[in-house]
Structures are given as C-alpha cells and as structure tokens.
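Design job #97: recover the sequence.
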C-alpha cells in the first residue's frame, strides 16, 4: 500500500517511456514486501536528475541514455568499475550521499559465465556506450576481445583501451578469418522497427559460436534467429537487462531478486 512512508525509486532517461525497468522493480518491491515505488522520469538535463534525487530523497535511481556519462561529475562517490568504464547506470542514495555504480558490465558477463569466458575469443559488434561496459566485463573475466565497428576511429579507441584487435565492419576478408567463441551485438541493428537488419555477416558464423544480443525488442532478433538456425547457442537481450536490474535491486535493498520471475513479468506485461 502506498502511504506517507513509501520510498521513491526511479529511472532517469530521455526518452524513457519504453523502459521496462518500472515493471521489474515494482514487481520485486511488492514481492519482497518493501514499501517503495519505482517511476520513470524524463528530465530535460542531467543536473535536474540530481536535483530531483536530492530534493525528493529518491532512494535509488537507474540512469539511462543520455545521462550515463554526464552524471558522473555530480556524484559524491563512484565505484572503481564505473569510473574505469566511464559510465554510471545506478545511483544509491545513502543518507544524502549519492553513490554511483555500473551494473551493466556484470550483467553482460553473467549469462555467459556458464559457458566459460576465460581464454575465449569474444567478438563485440559496436563501440558505443554499451560496448564499453561489455568490453570491460569480458576483459575482467580474461576473455580475448575482438572489436568490429562501422566507425574506424571509435572502434580503434575501444580496442586500444582493452588491448583488443579491431576490424572495420566492412573488412570482409579479416572478419571471415575470425572464429569467435562468443559474439555479442551491442549495436541497435535489428531493433524494432528495423527488425530485418543484420549486424553481422552470417556466412562467417560457425555453429560453435555462442551468440548474444543486447537488443530485447524484439526478443528474438534476426541475428539470434539465424544463429539458432545454424545451430548456435543464443542468449537474448532480456538476459543482460534483467541481470543489470537485479544488481541494482541488490544495491538498493540487499536482496537478490529472482531473475526468472522478473523475466516472466516482462514477458506477460512488457509488450515485446
Ligand atoms: P550505446 O551508447 O547505446 O551503445 P551508441 O553510442 O549509439 O549507443 O553506439 C551504438 C554503436 O552501434 C556504435 O558503435 C555504432 O557504430 P558507429 O560507431 O559506427 O556509429 C553502432 N551502430 C549504430 N547503427 C549502426 C548501423 N546501422 N550499422 C552498424 N553499426 C551501427
């Protein structure tokens, strides 16, 4: 029941109406009998996010595009992983001090851990903000990275940061020689409404590759569908989304929520 003790949490982004975070966090608060609500906020600028959190004593916040980087300078403290990645996706309000974390990088590697990452060759498609967190997570697990990106400079910068190989997406000759153990798409290619688009030339995909997409709209991207038809094992974009949310919930409440229950809530109500 919402009353005068109800604590406020929320996601800050712009645009934010597509976010599935309110679904999973409100479910988890109710499930664990915590008197809290989680809402979606679309402020005009990053300083307004921080003002809102401080003024309304918002206990925890998820941060999404375009505030993940620009927010950092307003925080009172940041953990070393978030600082190294250069992005914060979670705020914990600890008695008025705003602490910044990044749960994306852990979320990227957790669905892959059962398959093993150490010593594996991991190919990342894209070199934007999401790729930064994914690359950090893979490197921390001692995977060997190969970056493929359309923009050469951006791809080279990411590769340099993580001691990875880099090939431009149109370098068919070199790409055909890569036989990654794991392939992760971090680009928006294949996302609704452009669901027919493909981020990787599938001729080069072999059935032993584990293919992961961080897009969850649609849940089965063309990349995942075609990889499955080649016999590859696949990991959908909800996996990373749910793990980053579960880590946030743990940071805020100390409770590890059930990922499968959260997945069901999205599949039932998330309109994917
Ligand atoms: P995010 O921060 O969410 O990762 P982003 O910064 O827009 O989003 O990065 C998206 C990545 O997907 C970028 O690396 C982008 O490639 P460029 O660096 O060449 O811009 C990549 N990307 C976006 N649209 C693409 C497309 N149509 N084909 C190939 N790559 C694309």
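Job complete. Output follows.
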């Amino acid at each position: 029941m919402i009353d005068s003790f109800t604590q406020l949490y929320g996601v800050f982004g712009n645009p934010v109406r597509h976010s599935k975070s309110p679904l999973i966090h409100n479910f988890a608060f109710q499930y664990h009998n915590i008197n809290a609500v989680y809402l979606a906020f679309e402020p005009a600028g990053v300083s307004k996010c921080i003002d809102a959190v401080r003024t309304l004593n918002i206990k925890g916040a998820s941060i999404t595009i375009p505030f993940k980087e620009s927010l950092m300078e307003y925080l009172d403290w940041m953990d070393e992983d978030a600082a190294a990645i250069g992005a914060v996706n979670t705020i914990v309000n600890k008695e008025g001090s705003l602490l910044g974390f990044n749960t994306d990088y852990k979320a990227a590697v957790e669905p892959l851990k059962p398959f093993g990452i150490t010593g594996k060759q991991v190919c990342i498609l894209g070199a934007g903000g999401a790729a930064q967190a994914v690359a950090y997570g893979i490197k921390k697990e001692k995977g060997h990275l190969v970056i493929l990106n359309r923009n050469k400079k951006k791809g080279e910068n990411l590769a340099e940061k993580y001691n990875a190989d880099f090939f431009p997406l149109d370098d068919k000759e070199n790409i055909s020689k890569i036989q990654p153990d794991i392939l992760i798409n971090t680009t928006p290619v294949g996302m609704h409404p452009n669901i027919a688009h493909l981020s990787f030339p599938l001729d080069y995909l072999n059935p032993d590759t584990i293919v992961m997409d961080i897009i969850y709209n649609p849940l089965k991207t063309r990349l995942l569908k075609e990889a499955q038809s080649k016999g590859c094992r696949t990991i959908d974009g909800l996996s990373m989304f749910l793990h980053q949310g579960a880590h946030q919930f743990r940071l805020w409440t100390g409770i590890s929520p059930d990922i499968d229950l959260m997945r069901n809530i999205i599949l039932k109500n998330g309109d994917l």
